[in-house]
Specification:
There is one protein chain. With about 950 residues, the chain is of the alpha/beta class. It is built from 30 helices and 37 strands. Strands 16-15-28-27-26-17-18 form a 7-stranded mixed β-sheet, sandwiched between helices. Helix 8 packs across helix 25 and helix 13 packs antiparallel against helix 16. The longest helix is centred in the last third of the chain and has 27 residues. The protein binds iron/sulfur cluster (3 copies) and FE2/S2 (inorganic) cluster. The site of FE2/S2 (inorganic) cluster has 12 residues, from loops.
């Protein structure tokens, strides 16, 4: 089997022409007199490249299967007639190959001559000048003259397609090598491109001969990267020219954690190129990481600290020292008047591990309480709880690459092609190879439309019925004798298993009994359970459609039960895999952001763990858990909680029941917001501290597979400070001394206090590229797969948990007959603060309410109508899209635009164990309306007022200069 990533970690900066072979059998051959040994199935081209014999090539590149169209890579092989293409010829035992002789040189020159005779000779003014394989190959084969003129038919006037905001397709430069078409198919899995026509008339076409923007292209950039000429070029390269140096760093958007080369000209970022050496992405990207970086230099960036006494006043621009001392004195006086517990802080999953660690340290050590929480509260806190209870560790069990060994993939409440696109592409690749797919989701997600998909099943369950569904799947496994008895006997706690077995076998958990609840036919559930249990390797991937429910934690445990019962834990191809939303959700949890856990998931009540932190930090720590975010809001409204420090989160937009959140923020005496923009939360702030983007700082992010990746500074921080430096200053101003010269020293401190990070250091990260925790004496190079031998639980055994289905109290009735569920789309990210300030707006510039034609017809609603959506919490207005992707009775929207007020209608309902909000189930009614909601009118008024305050502050500062 060929694989597009290289398990042998060949030099990622070199193109070996064809993918690596995974065969364990080796063959020995001789190339230009050099003897070499390669895995069977390796191409002659790759075998040569591995010993630095670089055969000219045009249509081959090492992340695509060999195609054999250009013939430039011809070689001679002893005992074989003709000149076979080295890219499509596998290396064989005893082969003798010549890559250079007069005959081959002449053949290659002739081929290049034909290409060049139909190619614009504008090398000096071409954007790819200096980075063009056609140019390189003309040089490599020694082409000196072109005997054919440009008279006669040619493609030199072929049109340009400039529809995509990020790249241009200049057809006049196309050599029809098909690398773009194959990249779109093999790497991205979208199949947006074809070669249209035959012979001389062949040309690359997007969609049904549409523009790139109108086609199904998702702007991942794989074709641009694959193109050996300037035919497909980034617009930034056309505008700015070729970069001069690069720095490898990590995407700051989603939990895939793709590695990129930030290619620079001085301090200016020219383009982001996915790094082939990236262990999470192997050289692939999505539109966000690849192109949507313009927000970092957007005019809206906050560049100066600002303070004010009240949110009804204009801002005053001040220096760092004044802002920090203003914030510190406010915090101190509030604590003096209202007590130690009256203040707290929120860390961000968008910030680095080091920054997050420092914020929770500031709260515990300098504020003197445990009132620290993180945005993971509202997304994956049930993952932390549920997996800890069953598997013993609050993290996913696999690497992304593990999916390439899966035979059955169960996706629950996740939409990987939109929310985790690079992993979604890898998943699609495995599905095209024949793994079966089961999707449990109210919507028909795009994964189900994967071209060349094999067996697949959609279980379109009703929102709120996850636990009933997973119980039914396990019921079938147990009652039909499909469980893995060996695994259960060896690896699981017997008492808990016996109790769970009795519970799950009860007829009330059967697919037939829960059909009414889930809305999915019992036959389909039985079939899915059999497919999952019988496949040699079955893996579960889940997202916020699992966690953001009143039974989010129960569902996570139900998933772990299913994996344990079928023995799908502890090896490649299986496992329980939470797909984390933001870039550093895993990291922010690991770093001790939750009120009850110190870094490394050590409970604050554990005297030994607490003692270690007390010794290291030189303070005594509170042994009682502090407030969670929803408790902070309630306490603020009750007047007990008076000040909040929020780093890098926009709780006013992202948290549920916006009007409740706004009331809490308005009740605070002091709100300190540290962010790169005046976000919705900052509109309620008294201190605004400029944040630094991921391009402006050093640190690490930890992705959904527990992979710690380096974030490297590529340009100076716009306001002069990296985020961690601001937290250090605030701690010092509060009288708690903090002193670090570089984030590497913060990581050293983390390693000394969190056992699963004990072996992590910047030196080791730079050497390995990345490390998956646990990384310690037991696993010095990290742990790609967890729980291989035992679980970090009593006696090392996995624990089955009883997962009783308890329906949510948020139910549809006559007044609110529809269920609203929320999600994300590919081009926007979370609250949209970053992506809304990029050309990604071309794909999605407003949140839309999707509803089924049946529900639309009943209410006389057509596409594009304005709809008033009313829930028990509030009312907002969105435009309608009528879509058969929805099931009748269920409506769907995104929350990327603040003025939409999607969270005005979500409620305070939350997960019983963790308070994770129930974003995925809100009972609503919709009707046609003609004007925005009252909240939306207030929102617009406040937006203008707060932006005016900002503009006035800049004007005053400018006039003072
Ligand atoms: S940008 Fe990606 S999706 Fe679009 S055509 Fe290129 S490879 Fe296909
Ligand atoms: S656009 Fe580029 S990659 Fe695609 S066929 Fe033309 S030259 Fe090859
Ligand atoms: S998949 Fe996620 S991490 Fe990768 S480029 Fe896209 S947004 Fe960034
Ligand atoms: S590189 Fe081998 S045929 Fe094109």
């Amino acid at each position: 089997m060929l694989q597009y990533y290289d398990p042998n970690k060949a030099d990622p900066s070199k193109d070996y022409g064809t993918p690596a072979s995974l065969s364990e059998k080796l063959v020995t051959l001789e190339i230009d007199g050099v003897e070499t040994c390669v895995p069977e199935g390796t191409s002659v081209m790759r075998a040569a490249a591995l010993v630095d014999i670089n055969i000219p090539k045009l249509c081959a590149t090492d992340n695509l299967e060999a195609y054999g169209s250009c013939r430039l890579c011809a070689v001679q092989i002893e005992g074989r007639r003709g000149t076979p293409a080295s890219c499509t010829t596998p290396a064989e035992q005893g082969m003798k190959i010549w890559t250079q002789n007069e005959k081959l040189a002449k053949l290659r020159r002739n081929i290049m001559e034909l290409y060049i005779s139909d190619h614009p000779l504008d090398c000096l003014t071409c954007p790819a000048n200096g980075d063009c394989e056609l140019q390189d190959m003309a040089g490599a084969v020694g082409l000196r003259e072109v005997r054919y003129g440009f008279e006669g038919e040619n493609h030199l006037d072929a049109p340009k397609d400039t529809s995509n905001p990020y790249f241009t397709f200049d057809a006049s430069k196309c050599i029809v090598c098909s690398r773009c078409v194959r990249a779109c198919e093999e790497v991205q899995g979208t199949f947006a491109l074809t070669i249209d026509g035959r012979g001389f008339d062949s040309k690359v076409a997007a969609g049904q001969n549409e523009s790139f923007l109108d086609s199904e292209c998702v702007s991942c950039g794989a074709c641009v990267q694959a193109c050996p000429t300037a035919t497909l070029s980034e617009n930034s390269i056309i505008d700015l020219g070729q970069p001069e140096h690069s720095v490898v760093t990590t995407c700051a958007y989603c939990g895939v954690g793709c590695s990129f080369r930030a290619e620079m000209k001085g301090d200016q970022l020219v383009r982001m190129v996915p790094d082939k050496g990236g262990d999470a992405n192997h050289g692939h990207s999505c539109v966000k990481g690849r192109f949507a970086f313009g927000y970092a230099t957007h005019n809206d960036r906050i560049k100066t600290p600002m303070i004010r006494d009240s949110i009804d006043q204009p801002w005053k621009e001040v220096g760092w020292e004044e802002a920090i001392s203003f914030a510190a004195s406010r915090l101190k006086s509030i604590q003096a008047e209202h007590g130690r517990e009256s203040i707290g802080g929120i860390t961000s999953s968008r910030c680095t591990n080091e920054e997050t660690y420092l914020v929770q340290k500031l709260i515990r050590a300098a504020f003197g309480n445990n009132n620290t929480d993180t945005c993971a509260r509202v997304c994956h806190s049930p993952t932390g709880y549920g997996l800890k209870q069953t598997l013993g560790e609050s993290a996913g069990t696999q690497t992304f690459d593990s999916i390439m060994k899966s035979d059955c993939v169960l996706v629950i409440g996740a939409n990987p092609t939109d929310a985790h696109p690079v992993f979604g592409s890898m998943m699609r690749r495995r599905l095209r190879e024949g793994a079966s797919l089961i999707v449990a989701d109210p919507r028909e997600i795009d994964l189900l439309k994967t071209p060349h998909l094999g067996d697949s099943a959609h279980l379109p369950l009703r929102p709120g019925s996850n636990v009933a569904m997973v119980n039914a799947l396990s019921h079938v496994v147990i009652t039909e004798g499909l469980e893995d008895t060996d695994f259960i006997a060896k690896r699981c706690e017997s008492d808990a298993y016996a109790k769970w077995r009795a519970f799950i076998s009860e007829p009330r958990n059967s697919p037939e009994a829960v059909e009414e609840i889930t809305g999915v036919s019992a036959t389909a559930v039985r079939e899915a359970a059999r497919t999952f249990a019988k496949a040699p390797n079955s893996a579960i991937y889940y997202g916020l459609g699992v966690t953001e429910h009143s039974q989010g934690s129960t569902m996570v445990m139900g998933i772990a039960n299913l994996a344990l019962a079928t023995g799908n834990i502890g090896r490649d191809g299986v496992g329980v895999n939470p797909l984390r939303g933001q870039n550093n959700v895993q990291g922010s949890c690991d770093m001790g952001s939750f009120p009850h856990e110190l870094p490394g998931y050590q409970h604050v009540s554990d005297p030994i763990a607490r003692g270690r932190f007390e010794a290291a930090w030189g303070v005594s720590l509170d042994d009682e858990p502090g407030l969670r975010i929803p408790n902070m809001f309630d306490a603020a409204i009750a007047g007990q909680f008076r000040a909040l420090y929020v780093q890098g989160e926009d709780i006013a937009q992202s948290d549920p029941n916006t009007q409740h959140v706004e009331a809490a923020l308005k009740a605070l005496d002091c709100l300190i917001v540290q962010d790169i923009f005046l976000n919705e939360t900052a509109k309620f702030a008294h201190v605004l501290l400029p944040g630094s983007s991921f391009l402006e700082k050093n640190g690490t992010f930890t992705n959904a597979e527990r992979r710690i990746n380096r974030v490297r500074k590529v340009m100076p921080a716009v306001a002069g400070k990296e985020d961690w430096e601001v937290t250090v200053d605030l701690a010092n101003a509060l009288g708690y001394p903090m002193s670090y010269n570089h984030p590497s020293e913060i990581m050293d401190e983390i390693a000394s206090l969190a056992p699963s990070f004990a072996g992590v250091s910047y030196e080791k990260l730079d050497k390995h590229g990345s490390l998956q925790w646990p990384c310690n004496d037991q696993f010095p190079d990290g742990s790609p797969i967890m729980h291989m031998e035992s679980f970090p639980m009593p006696e090392g055994k996995g624990h089955f948990a009883i997962t009783e289905f308890v329906p949510t109290t948020e139910r549809a009735n006559r007044k609110f007959p529809l269920l609203l569920t929320t999600g994300r789309i590919l081009s926007q990210y979370n609250v949209g603060a970053q992506t809304r300030r990029t050309d990604n707006q071309a794909w999605h510039d407003e949140d839309i309410l999707e509803l089924h034609p049946h529900d639309a017809e009943e209410r006389g609603i057509s596409d594009g109508d304005w709809l008033g959506i009313t829930s028990r919490a509030g009312h907002t207005v969105l435009r309608a899209r009528v879509s058969v992707r929805m099931q009748p009775g269920v409506v769907y929207t995104t929350f990327h635009h603040p003025g939409s007020g999607a969270n005005v209608i979500t409620t305070n309902n939350s997960d019983w164990a963790t308070n994770c909000p129930e974003y995925k189930v809100t009972a609503v009614q919709v009707e046609k309306v003609s004007q925005p909601s009252e909240w939306q009118k207030d929102f617009v008024a406040n937006h203008h007022r707060q932006n005016k305050f900002l503009a006035e502050a800049s004007a005053v500062a400018a006039s003072d200069e």
